[in-house]
Specification:
Layout lengths: L1 H10 L2 H12 L5 H12 L3 H35 L9 H21 L6 H10 L4 H30 L1
Helix pairs in contact: 2-3, 2-4, 3-4, 3-7, 4-6, 4-7, 5-6, 5-7, 6-7
């Protein structure tokens, strides 16, 4: 089955291979790590898989960061006008505790084990973290997780052959 998938993938134009991995990696919970695995299992060349997965995940993470930044600005403006803040959800409180304990680097690198990078990055910005620091550390984290899962995927494919 894996051979048939690889043959099919290799028959596609290179730009379509890129697009498939990028689109998969842009989806929360799939991200760069599972996007990388999908690309490797499908037979997309490793450099293309890694780059496409990182770019797809980064693009969607940036959308969440900029949306959270704009939402935070609106919330702060309403608070300045005297409106009371809403009660945070239990999951948001958990991420906030993690953020207070480990900061932007820790949540960026470890947070993907709990929630997608898109959600954790948006939450960190909403907590008041520097948008640029969140972007930098999330990109580092996305790259690190993609490489780790690429190695796992390559090892798994090698074992199956």
């Amino acid at each position: 089955m894996q051979e048939a998938l690889t043959d099919f993938t290799q028959s596609l134009p290179l730009w379509l291979q890129w697009a498939g991995v990028m689109l998969a990696a842009a989806i929360p919970f799939i991200e760069s790590y599972f996007g990388t695995l999908i690309g490797i299992i499908a037979g997309v060349p490793l450099p293309i898989t890694l780059l496409a997965a990182v770019l797809g995940n980064t693009a969607s993470m940036l959308a969440f960061v900029f949306a959270a930044s704009a939402a935070r600005a609106k919330v702060l403006a309403r608070r300045a006008a005297g409106e009371a803040p809403a009660e945070p959800s239990p999951r948001r409180e958990k991420v906030k505790r993690m953020f207070d304990r480990f900061g932007v680097p820790g949540v960026s690198l470890l947070g993907q084990t709990v929630l997608p990078s898109q959600i954790t990055s948006g939450m960190m910005v909403s907590f008041g973290a520097s948008r640029n620091a969140v972007i930098l550390w999330q990109i580092i984290s996305i790259i690190v997780w993609a490489i780790i899962f690429a190695l796992i995927g390559m090892g798994g494919v090698a074992l199956l052959r």
